[in-house]
Amino acid sequence: MNGIFEKNNIKLFGFLPFESVKNNLINCKNKSLIPEKAKTVIVMLFPYFSYNLKKGNLSKYASVKDYHQVLKELSQNLLKDLGEKYPDEEFIFFSDNSPINEIEAAVSCGLGVKGKNGLLINEKYGSYLFIGEIITTLELENYTISEEKSCLCCGLCQKVCPENAISEGKVNIDKCLSHINQKKGDLTSFEKELILKTNYIWGCDICQDICPMNKNILETFIPDFKKDIKENLFYEDIINLSNKTFCEKYKDRAFTFRGVSVLKRNLNIIKDQNQ
Fold first, then answer.
1. 274, pLDDT greater than 80
2. Domain of 235?
3. Which DSSP string do the residues of 233-251 spell out, in sequence order?
């Protein structure tokens, strides 16, 4: 099986017995896709950091090609190869909207530790990671369940968070900039001030960028995350675009899923302040 993963350029993966997670599944719409006779969870990491990725007004994860598209392409080839190798088994891929607690599963199979900001941190690739899983009916002989380990517990992510949204591995989303600048509707004066203070119009990397476990990390081995990087989106780029035109122009970017109005609102907040 390892050879199949290597062939598909998936270098970070681990295995868990489905039995170990089945009592803590998330009640999302994809839960119904879990195979009836599930035996194994395969957890995979997809790092997206590259040395070309600079700080901008878009979070790093949104500066690269839409991870939904990249992971879908990688998983399709992987599932094809697994299906050919094990034709009598089922393999279902999940990412983002997963019934598995992705971070806890990744920690359990030794792929990293959980930071105080609630993010998974891999020893070599830091916390700039996307996570995916395959739930399969294939039963493996050897599973390795790792003891849960902590990050360095330096507390820097908590200290630099603009509104102290981080506390002991949990994030108060009402104070989290990444949640605030991606939600629809009008913002409060407090929320507008947070955007002005940080200049982020989509997402936030403040707690990741300060993390000492993100220093001197390796860059991604996934080619699609190294090219066509767009760290900034400016007022002039989108102000005259309809939602349809915006989504077509940036169809390969994760920041389109809320539509153009959210980004126009955020850019207008900054523009009005600067006038």
1. no
2. 156-215+229-274
3. --HHHHTT--HHHHHHHTT
Does one domain contain both 160 and 269? yes
Token reading at 94: 């999940």
> Same domain for 73 and 195?
no
pLDDT tens digits, one per residue of 103-124: 999 999 999 999 999 999 999 9
> Which of 136, 165, 189 is where one domain is finished?
136
- Give the Cα separation of 113 and 106 in Å (integer): 8
For residues 149-156, give the mean pLDDT: 90
Give residue 184's pLDDT: 95
- Residues with a catalytic annotation lie at 96
Q: Are residues 75 and 130 in the same domain?
A: yes
Residues 118 and 164 in one domain: no
Q: What is residue 146's predicted lDDT score, i.e. its pLDDT?
A: 66
Residue 148 pLDDT greater than 90, yes or no: no
Q: In sequence order, which residues have a C-beta less than 8 Å from that of residue 249 and are 6 or more positions away?
A: 241
Count of domains forming the chain: 2
Do residues 155 and 116 make contact, with C-beta atoms less than 8 angstroms apart?
A: yes
